[in-house]
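Reader question, answered in our methods column.
A reader sent in the components of a multi-part assembly and asked whether the whole thing could be modeled at once rather than chain by chain. We filled in our standard form and ran it. Here is what they sent:
COMPLEX SIZE: two components
ENTRIES:
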Amino acid sequence: MDEDRPIFQQVAEQIENDIISGALPEDTQVPSTNEFAAFLRINPATAGKGVNLLVDSGILYKKRGIGMFVSPGARERLVAARRERFRAQYVAPLLAEAAKLGIPAEQVATMIRTEDAR
Amino acid sequence: MTEIVRVDGVTKRYGAVRAVDDVSLSLEEHRVYGLLGRNGAGKTTLMSLLTGQDFASEGRIEVFGATPVEHAGVLQQLCFIRESQRYPDDFKPKHVFRSAPWFFPNWDAAFAERLVGEFRLPLNRPIKKLSRGQLSAVGVIVGLASRAPLTFFDEPYLGLDAAARQLFYDRLLADIAERPRTIVLSTHLIDEVSDLLEHVLVIDQGRLVVDSDAEALRGSAANVVGPREAVEAFVAGREVLHRDGVGGLASVTVARLAPQEREAAKAAGLELGPVSLQQLVVRITGQDAEAGR
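And here is the structure of the entire assembly that came back:
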């Protein structure tokens, strides 16, 4: 677990990552809160908070007495949200670092195309 | 959340020393608390007061709605695992586990037996002849299998090796997930337990200096690193916990940084590093903190 972010957020993100990668397909059951807690070696209440974050946003749904499942359309929604974040998380820092080194944005774009062609 | 412990302005004096100094706090049901601080900070004294093994000089303590001292109904809901628990001479671990149900109504003998196997504890060896780690295992097993609604572990694992400590954390987590109860864990191995804690209490020289949700603490403090002038300009007016640096570079630990402030620091070209719970406690209770007071 990272030190600088709340653990429950990281739990939610790990589940999101598994949904995006396809490891957790839609309508499959996700591990229980207690299973997450034991596996990640974190407090069960914290694991529960992470799972509830995804229930509240509709990524997971509850079947009473059975457990949590991945909602239909969850993957698509997560990918869309992550694409939104991509600019802030990757493109902006990339250009900031480039500016620090005196590389113009146009040259960065060329570098990306060259890298992609490899 | 149900409050199960209420401490109001409690002081414990030994002669001129205030081992616990005007502490007020409350504990809620089904949470895992970390009680952290340096040696001699007052952690064990506070736990002795909460478990009715000692009288407060001043202030008021309520545990499960009553004063714990000599209150059988309260005491049987508590379990206090001391760092250096004493047992009668000639006692063997099997005697400890056999007598446990007299004190702990929720005692689970089958669970204890399983733990004895997992910790590889010799049941028939006199306690006097056990290694330090085996002695700690006796306490850990009692603390887990007693399933008391409020359990205190005071440095429960002196001499336990890394594998045995991990076993303790794993069994504790699995068991409280199935049977929620309140745990107070006092330890110096903060990095090892930081992900288990929901709430952190830090005590220093008898005073409660941190009483915070663990998630709020995590990520509140930050190390600000960069050119000395820029760092100093940024941290001016903030609560500084620690200063470090080499040449023109400075690294300053600040107690709190809001998300917008983090953005501002990054925009100013400063690097932000995380501060672990252990570093934070060292900063708050260490020499620097004393000098700054």
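What stands out: The longest strand of chain A covers residues 60-63. Residues 35 and 106 of chain A are 49 Å apart (CA to CA).
Send us your own complexes using the same form.
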